[in-house]
């Protein structure tokens, strides 16, 4: 078929940024998948609760300190996370490096508290359906923290390598920051479920 | 390589056509040899693999169905024993749903969507390669387990507690559940790719109201996958956890609930039907206009119907649970919502009829299958309305009536359009035409064979024959009809045999097809058959719904993409205005290794929970290898 | 295989009942309502299908004089037709929804049933427990439910192991038996007769052989039957049956089965106190004759592979005596 | 991308590795292969009766047929789960609890009064033992006894088998069999671990 050139795209930027980038959309799609997963576990938690004569089943409500500290820590990490995102937008290599190192610690610190959250439930996963769903919720969320932590660590290494100063890398940093926001935000309803719903 | 972007030397504006094609081929094609094939991220290569694999699973599943029909031809037959029969019907259902129907529809999307929206590769092509290997591993897991006599025997919806720790000895149910994880993982990956490809990579000018209906349907399908699959992933994982580490999700004695499984399964399971059916709707809406020589009637209502079906799909899972004894009020609500799905389905049928009415039908094989589809699917839809009624369902639930119903929906509603689609796009995929003569034979044998096989099952169901029984007693009045059905199934299989023969024969020695043998209107026909690795020499520009009909002689295109690295055009979501030139990843074997690492972890985790910990390490390593930049032209920007 | 052939079919039992397990041959209050609803819906849907087919054939074969896609005029006409068809769809499905809603209301049984029976389904047989206010008058049967004709019968459905489904199409629609839950189904037989039911939810290996019979009889014969069932197992009178009783007590049988009035009190298998009075054995698999009893006891794993009754090694004399004893437990 | 130079040797190396992995997978699955035996042929049942017991009734040799069958009762998931059902159907729990013992000795501690061999467990169940262990030969068939013995043997294991049964759909009294090692789960309680059950015969 004959072709007729009617549009020259050679002046377009070489990398789409922000919401124009396919990676951003891909990250959103994955967040939607995982968000559906989190919505689902909350629904199951409430479903099992509606069936049980007492809730929690054969256990006291979970101790608050570990989960609450973790929540505070996650909320606090939002601030540096916003900074990193902004620095990445500004293509400021030095600050992004600093920010990623900072965020790596922000990813690791909650894991310490998470380790105390499991015993704070006072129930084992195989004791009752209550134990099963709470352990599953905590486990699922821990996997998300870990995934993002590994991603942050790898990105931090990348930024210190020769591949660092690259529009594509900055886009990855922004998406990683977006994902960390997701990890923090999804934790809030889960936290409410595990720690406060049984106390209502 | 340091070539300044925008310089004409490296873009497609400079050289003549032959030189440009040579450069693009060099940039986009995969390496030769085994590892070149493994590393390929070309959406066409992967989709072709996917389709062939899914068709192999279709043939295997068909053989299982024949085995079941032989067993049921006579009462108290001993052709297959109870244990094997239970494995076979479980395999048949799981195989057809998870290894054939969903993957083949997604594979068609992987092949067609990038071509139809006028881009050079799918979004996240490495994820696409990964998805295929994972799918293959899941299929192998299931079929190897069948060969080794450890195949699941709990039915394709594996109700707890039959599939649970106490009643499902051995690893049979775990293998089923993990096979689900494999196929869901691959389906989710493809869904993400499709959503992003459709939203971000459309040719300039292809605004939302100019997207081909097939692409619309694939977009809705992908959204359904994204929303529905987490439910089944959760269900299958918790089932394995119940069996392996003793969680209590499905144990009523410790606060769990047997019905929780059904809620989770059908919350996925009903949308699953539309995940299979909506692509078929898209295929029909795209193929039909070509063979009636006029644009589709009611583009907007059809798009609305697709979206409405997608939304409603989440509101009717309970109609699979009408006989578990739920409260009346809930049942009435779900009756109404299940009935309501007939409205979008009706809109689709009426629009197709109107298109047929106003057009001039050309009776080629694809159109024959579309007509067969309408005849059959309307019956399936109407029996669907029947089972949506709680009292009606209380008599036919879990009987052969339901078996007949969903085969009418799935074969009539999805496989007929799929065969039409294969006849229609085969010339594009292989460059060769399929046989019109064999195609007609296949159509009549499949169409007649299908109806004589499955229609009597409605009657069997009303006569009280439950499904999933490996035999029945001679005194029950089902013998004659069952024998008839079994004989008819031979006719149906013969039709499929001819169809497969036609595929194999045409692939090697079919008549060469030109660029656009059907004189169709969508963009995939504006490039070679089979399309070159880079799909389009220049990205087309679109200003109507039927670009090849509105300007039959000339294709408006863009210029300015680089030819020395893999580059795509990114456009805006709604109006498809060009936004950027984004690089597309090179071939890589890392997705293959990542898939192997993931498979090892998933299979190992059937046996030990520690697999999650230790199995994640190789996965992380392969993923880092996958994403770590290698300094290729595609990594710069 | 041989034993399966040797065992007589249950056709005698079924003769005269027509489709004894058919939704289209209703003999109960609910099933009649359901049959009517089924026929109405099927008729309406058939008409819809026919209408669509007529339009389809017409659209395919009609003569076309003008060029295709001839402009706005025909499109506007089609738009009206399509809108009309969609409106008709909405009307029809609303009608069907309302119709099925009213049928469901009609199925609601009486508040105070005349008979209540506990049904405990297990892999792969049915346990029917007739409970009385006085527990001493309780009795149970297996795979055979007797009910009085014309009376409201309520069954309380529970499951011992996996999910099963209670379905007697000639009398009522099905309802699942789910572990951890109790479902209640009420139905009424309008005519006396024998109605076959079968598990309708896949429940494992022998799902296919999990049938039962409902015998609807006049109030009086029902009472007589219930009275007889309350009695302990018949004492053997002949030498052969006495010997059979001894075999039953001495061998593995008593560990799983109960015969009231003897030491046998196992609860894993069906209660055999009045097994001789039942029409079938092994959940509707075989007609209850001495021959089929012997075949079943000799090799239950060939007749119904994987069921929970083991092969008990018996001499031919013991087998003869045992089956005679079983048959005598009327 | 693999460098083009070493592509060939790489390919050879990896395809060999891939084949090996596939083979390992197949062997792994084949090892678990379980053609379930629902019906024990009467001659086999009779042969299963014919094990040889040592004169002191501790230990002995299983019949030849048991080896010919591939020692099914100890290793296949189906037989173990049937054994578990028999354990509850035949009231073993009334003396032995859920394996932690009671009036009878415990199983979870891995200590066997009459030795850990299958044959002596089968003999204990079939023929009974001193101190109130009844004989089950009139209550169970011999293949059921072997199934039960296999289950009993498995819950005393120090490492969980892949084929061990999992939890039941019932109130939980102890972690499931596949969650061993049993010794860790064994709660010694106040009673001594190996109560003196009298002199060994």
Characterization of the model:
The complex is a heterotetramer of chains A (200), B (637), C (330) and D (201). Chain A has a single domain (34-199), classed as Cytochrome c oxidase, subunit III, four-helix bundle (Four Helix Bundle (Hemerythrin (Met), subunit A)). Chain A contains 5 helices and 1 strand. Chain A has helices at residues 22-51, 64-89, 93-120, 129-160, 167-196, and one strand at 2-8. Chain A is elongated. The termini of chain A are far apart. Chain B is an all-alpha fold and 637 residues long. Chain B is 64% helix and 3% strand. A two-stranded antiparallel sheet of chain B has the order 2-3. The two termini of chain B are 12 Å apart. Chain C has 3 domains: 29-107; 115-230, Immunoglobulin-like, CATH 2.60.40; 239-328, Immunoglobulin-like (Sandwich), CATH 2.60.40. Chain C is 39% helix and 18% strand. In chain C, the strands form 4 sheets. Chain C has a 5-stranded mixed β-sheet with strand order 3-2-1-5-8, with no helix packed on it. Chain C has a 3-stranded mixed β-sheet with strand order 4-10-9, covered by helices on one side. In chain C, a hairpin with an 8-residue loop joins strand 6 (164-166) and strand 7 (175-177). Chain D contains 9 helices and 2 strands. Chain D has a two-stranded antiparallel ribbon with strand order 1-2. In chain D, 43% of the residues lie in helices and 2% in strands. Chains B and C meet through helix 4, helix 8, helix 10, helix 11 and helix 12 of B and helix 3 and helix 4 of C.
């Amino acid at each position: 078929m004959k072709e007729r050139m009617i549009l020259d795209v050679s002046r377009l930027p070489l990398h789409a940024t922000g919401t124009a980038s396919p990676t951003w959309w891909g990250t959103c799609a994955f967040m939607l998948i995982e968000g559906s997963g989190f919505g689902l576990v909350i629904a199951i938690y409430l479903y099992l609760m509606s069936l049980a004569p007492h809730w929690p089943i054969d256990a006291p409500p979970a101790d608050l300190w570990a989960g609450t500290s973790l929540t505070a820590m996650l909320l606090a990490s939002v601030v540096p996370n916003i900074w990193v995102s902004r620095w990445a937008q500004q293509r400021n290599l030095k600050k992004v490096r600093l920010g990623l190192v900072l965020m790596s610690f922000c990813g690791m610190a909650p894991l310490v508290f998470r380790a105390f959250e499991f015993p704070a439930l006072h129930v084992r996963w195989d004791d009752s359906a209550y134990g099963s769903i709470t352990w599953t919720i905590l486990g699922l969320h821990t996997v998300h923290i870990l995934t993002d932590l590994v991603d942050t660590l790898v990105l931090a290494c990348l930024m210190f390598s020769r591949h660092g100063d690259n529009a594509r890398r900055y886009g990855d940093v922004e998406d990683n920051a977006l994902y960390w926001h997701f990890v923090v935000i999804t934790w809030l309803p889960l936290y409410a479920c595990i720690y406060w719903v049984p106390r209502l | 390589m340091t070539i300044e972007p925008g310089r004409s030397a490296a873009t497609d504006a400079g050289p003549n056509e032959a030189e440009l094609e040579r450069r693009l081929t060099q940039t986009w094609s995969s390496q030769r040899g085994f590892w070149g094939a493994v590393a390929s991220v070309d959406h066409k290569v992967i989709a072709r693999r996917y389709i062939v694999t899914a068709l192999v699973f279709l043939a295997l599943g068909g053989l299982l169905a024949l085995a079941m029909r032989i067993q049921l031809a006579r009462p108290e037959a001993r052709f297959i024993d109870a244990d094997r029969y239970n494995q076979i019907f479980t395999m048949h259902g799981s195989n057809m749903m998870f290894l054939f129907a969903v993957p083949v529809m997604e594979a068609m999307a992987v092949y067609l969507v990038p071509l139809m929206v006028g881009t050079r590769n799918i979004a996240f092509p490495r994820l696409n390669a990964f998805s295929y290997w994972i799918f293959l591993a899941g299929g192998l897991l299931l079929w190897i387990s069948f060969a080794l006599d450890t195949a699941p025997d709990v039915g394709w919806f594996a109700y707890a507690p039959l599939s649970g720790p106490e009643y499902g000895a051995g690893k049979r149910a775990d293998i089923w559940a993990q096979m689900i994880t494999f196929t869901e993982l691959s389906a989710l990956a493809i869904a993400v790719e499709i959503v992003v490809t459709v939203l971000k990579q459309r040719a300039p000018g292809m605004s939302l109201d100019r997207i081909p209906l097939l692409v619309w349907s694939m977009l809705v399908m992908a959204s359904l996958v994204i929303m529905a699959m987490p439910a089944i992933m959760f269900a299958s994982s918790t089932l394995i956890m119940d069996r392996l580490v003793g969680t209590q999700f499905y144990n009523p004695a410790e606060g769990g609930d047997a019905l929780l499984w059904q809620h989770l399964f059908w919350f996925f399971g009903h949308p699953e039907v539309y995940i299979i059916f909506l692509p078929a709707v898209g295929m029909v809406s795209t193929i039909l206009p070509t063979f009636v020589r006029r644009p589709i009637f009611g583009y907007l209502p059809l798009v609305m119907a697709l979206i409405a079906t997608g939304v409603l799909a989440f509101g009717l899972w309970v109609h699979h649970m009408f006989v578990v004894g739920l409260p009346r009020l809930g049942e009435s609500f779900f009756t109404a919502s299940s009935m309501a799905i007939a409205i979008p389905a009706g809109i689709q049928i009426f629009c197709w009829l109107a298109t047929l009415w106003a057009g001039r039908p050309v009776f080629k094989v694809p159109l024959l299958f579309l007509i067969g589809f309408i005849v059959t699917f309307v019956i399936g839809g109407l029996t669907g309305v029947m089972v949506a009624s709680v009292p009606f369902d209380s008599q036919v639930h879990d009987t052969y009536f339901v078996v007949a119903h969903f085969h009418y929906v799935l074969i009539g509603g999805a496989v007929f359009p799929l065969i039409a689609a294969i006849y229609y796009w085969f010339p594009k995929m292989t460059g060769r035409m399929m046989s019109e003569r064999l195609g007609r034979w296949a159509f009549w044998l499949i169409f007649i064979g299908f109806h004589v096989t499955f229609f009597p099952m409605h009657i069997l169901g009303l006569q009280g024959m439950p499904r999933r029984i490996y035999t029945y007693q001679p005194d029950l009045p089902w013998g004659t009809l069952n024998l008839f059905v079994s004989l008819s199934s031979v006719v149906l299989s013969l039709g499929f045999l001819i169809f497969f023969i036609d595929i194999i024969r045409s692939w090697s020695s079919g008549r060469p097809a030109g660029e656009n043998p059907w004189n169709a209107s969508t963009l995939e026909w504006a490039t070679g058959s089979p399309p070159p690795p880079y799909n389009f020499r220049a990205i087309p520009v679109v200003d109507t719904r039927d670009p090849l009909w509105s300007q039959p002689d000339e294709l408006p295109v863009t210029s300015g993409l680089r030819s020395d690295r893999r580059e795509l055009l990114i456009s805006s979501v709604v109006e498809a205005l060009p936004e950027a030139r984004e690089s597309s990843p090179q071939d890589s074997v890392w997705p293959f290794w990542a898939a192997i690492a993931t498979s090892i972890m998933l299979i190992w985790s059937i046996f030990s929970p520690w697999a999650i910990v230790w199995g994640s390490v190789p996965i992380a390593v392969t993923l880092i290898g996958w994403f770590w930049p290698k300094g290729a032209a595609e990594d710069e920007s | 295989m041989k034993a399966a052939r040797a065992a007589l079919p249950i056709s005698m039992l079924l003769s005269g009942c027509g489709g004894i397990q058919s939704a289209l041959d209703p003999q109960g209050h609910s099933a009649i309502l359901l049959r009517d609803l089924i026929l109405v819906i099927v008729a309406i849907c058939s008409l819809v299908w026919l209408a669509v087919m007529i339009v389809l054939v017409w659209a395919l074969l009609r003569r076309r004089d003008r060029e295709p896609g001839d402009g706005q005029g025909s499109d506007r006409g089609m738009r009206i037709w399509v809108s009309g068809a969609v409106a008709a769809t909405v009307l029809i499905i609303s009608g069907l929804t309302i119709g099925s809603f009213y049928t469901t209301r009609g199925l609601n049984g009486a508040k105070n049933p005349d008979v209540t029976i506990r049904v405990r389904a297990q892999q792969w047989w049915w346990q029917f427990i007739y409970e009385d206010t006085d527990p001493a008058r309780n009795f149970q049967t297996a795979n055979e439910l007797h009910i009085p004709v014309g009376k409201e019968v309520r069954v309380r459905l529970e499951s011992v192991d996996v999910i099963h489904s209670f379905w007697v199409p000639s009398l009522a629609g099905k309802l699942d038996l789910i572990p951890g839950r109790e479902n209640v189904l009420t139905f009424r037989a309008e005519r006396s007769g024998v109605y076959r039911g079968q598990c309708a939810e896949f429940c494992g290996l022998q799902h296919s052989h999990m049938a039962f019979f409902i015998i609807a009889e006049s109030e009086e014969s029902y009472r007589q039957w219930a009275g007889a069932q309350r009695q302990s197992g018949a004492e053997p009178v002949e030498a052969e049956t006495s010997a059979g009783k001894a075999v039953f007590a001495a061998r593995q049988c008593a560990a799983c089965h109960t015969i009231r009035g003897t030491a046998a009190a196992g609860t894993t298998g069906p209660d055999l106190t009045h097994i001789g009075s039942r029409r079938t054995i092994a959940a509707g698999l075989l007609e209850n004759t001495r021959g089929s009893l012997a075949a079943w006891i000799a090799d239950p794993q060939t007749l119904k592979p994987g069921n929970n009754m083991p092969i008990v090694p018996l001499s031919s004399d013991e087998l003869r005596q045992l089956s005679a004893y079983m048959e005598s437990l009327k | 991308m693999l460098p083009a130079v070493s592509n060939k040797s790489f390919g050879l190396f990896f395809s060999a590795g891939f084949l090996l992995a596939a083979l390992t997978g197949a062997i792994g699955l084949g090892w678990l292969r379980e053609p379930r035996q629902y019906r024990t042929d009467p001659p086999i049942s009779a042969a299963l009766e014919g094990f040889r017991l040592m004169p002191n009734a501790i230990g002995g040799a299983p019949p030849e047929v048991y080896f010919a069958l591939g020692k099914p009762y100890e290793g296949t998931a189906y037989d173990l789960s049937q054994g578990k059902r028999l354990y509850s159907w035949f009231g073993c729990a009334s003396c032995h609890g859920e394996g932690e013992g009671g009036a009878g000795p415990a199983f979870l501690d891995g200590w066997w009064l009459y030795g850990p061999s299958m044959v002596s467990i089968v003999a204990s169940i079939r023929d009974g033992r001193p101190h109130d262990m009844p004989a089950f030969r009139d209550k169970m068939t011999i293949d059921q006894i072997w199934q039960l013995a296999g289950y009993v043997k498995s819950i005393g294991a120090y490492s969980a088998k892949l084929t061990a049964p999992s939890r039941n759909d019932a109130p939980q009294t102890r972690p499931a069999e596949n969650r061993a090692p049993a010794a860790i789960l064994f709660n010694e309680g106040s009673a001594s671990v190996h109560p003196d059950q009298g002199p060994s015969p």
